[in-house]
Write a structure and sequence with these properties.
about 325 residues, eight-stranded mixed β-sheet, two-stranded antiparallel ribbon
């Protein structure tokens, strides 16, 4: 009980001894003030508890790692390992090479893993990130030859997503899945006419003849366009080589196969881009023979996602949404 409350209690005791017609009114006012003070103190204690609880929760979320296999089957039987590859493939997303490779290693190292399913639902993204994941799948398959990898396509597995899927032993899809888009793009905007109209003068200083070859405020030069196309062709060839290495003789000889077109799962089956039609549960039950599915997907913590949204990645996400990118993309 603080000093102010003690004083109120003393004043209240004195009022009890007072005489006169306003005694009852004064007693009610004093009692109401005392109750309000007690309620205020209780609310203050409550909000302090809420604040410290919130702070402790944030600290726990920051330090608590999100490990693969968070949803585990407690039995001792063998299982099918599941890894979700969802959304745009980039170093800033949950389909980054770091997160996917961590999940892959955990899945292969688990002695109860009978087979691995990559559940694909991605429009593609970074060729570098896709390449890292493809290379790691190949390495782990050589290290664990008895553990097969199956890519199962949900709504879409395009470009960089298919770059990853090509490393699997078999690829499954739904008949309406979107598959393929084996191509490379680099896009942007040209604002040189716009700044002329609004009376803005562009000042650009460089060291190197072609240092500004992707500057959106300068008109394109023939040499710069030719260089960019050569670069994209080179990345496209790398993509084609990876698909041919992974799919081999399964691919049909179709001139449009590597044109960047996308096909349904049913069409992809005829082209050799997928092996069969089927879902993740079908593959686990009928192909791998281990119906119990254990999820090894690694997710970012709340703090990681919050920091990225508030930091530099906000600009990257905005660029991806707007379609403005000066980095080659497999999507």
């Amino acid at each position: 009980m603080d000093k102010e409350e003690v004083k109120l209690n003393k004043d209240f005791d004195k009022l009890k001894q007072a005489n006169g017609w306003d005694k009852k009114l004064i007693e009610d006012l004093a009692l109401s003030s005392l109750k309000e003070k007690r309620a205020s103190r209780r609310w203050g204690i409550f909000f302090k508890f809420v604040f410290w609880g919130y702070l402790i929760t944030l600290i726990a979320l920051f330090y608590l790692p999100v490990k693969p296999g968070a949803i585990l089957d407690k039995s001792s039987s063998e299982h099918t390992a599941l890894i979700n590859i969802k959304g745009i493939i980039s170093s800033e997303s949950e389909a980054s090479a770091d997160l996917v490779i961590t999940a892959l290693r955990e899945a292969f190292e688990d002695k109860k893993t009978r087979g691995v399913i990559l559940r694909m639902n991605t429009p593609g993204g970074s060729p570098v990130q896709s390449g890292y994941i493809n290379d790691e799948i190949v390495r782990l398959k050589e290290l664990y030859p008895d553990t097969k990898v199956y890519a199962v396509i949900m709504d879409v597995c395009a470009s960089g997503g298919y770059y990853i899927a090509a490393a699997a032993d078999e690829i499954y899809a739904d008949k309406a899945s979107m598959v393929g888009s084996i191509g490379v793009l680099m896009n942007g905007f040209g604002f040189e006419n716009a700044i002329d109209k609004i009376g803005v003068t562009r000042r650009l200083y460089t060291a190197g003849e072609h240092k500004s070859f992707l500057d959106p405020f300068s008109p394109p030069q023939e040499a710069d366009v030719a260089h960019t196309k050569t670069m994209l062709v080179n990345v496209h060839k790398q993509f084609i080589d990876v698909v041919k290495k992974g799919r081999g003789d399964k691919l049909k000889d179709d001139p449009l196969l590597f044109s960047g077109y996308i096909w349904t799962g049913e069409q992809s089956l005829a082209l050799g881009l997928v092996d069969k039609l089927g879902s993740s549960s079908y593959v686990a039950r009928e192909v791998i023979g281990a119906e119990t599915i254990k999820d090894f997907t690694v997710s970012e913590t709340f703090i990681d996602r919050f920091a990225k949204k508030m930091g530099a990645s906000m600009a990257a996400q905005l660029a991806e949404i707007s379609g403005f990118s000066l980095t080659p993309q497999l999507r």
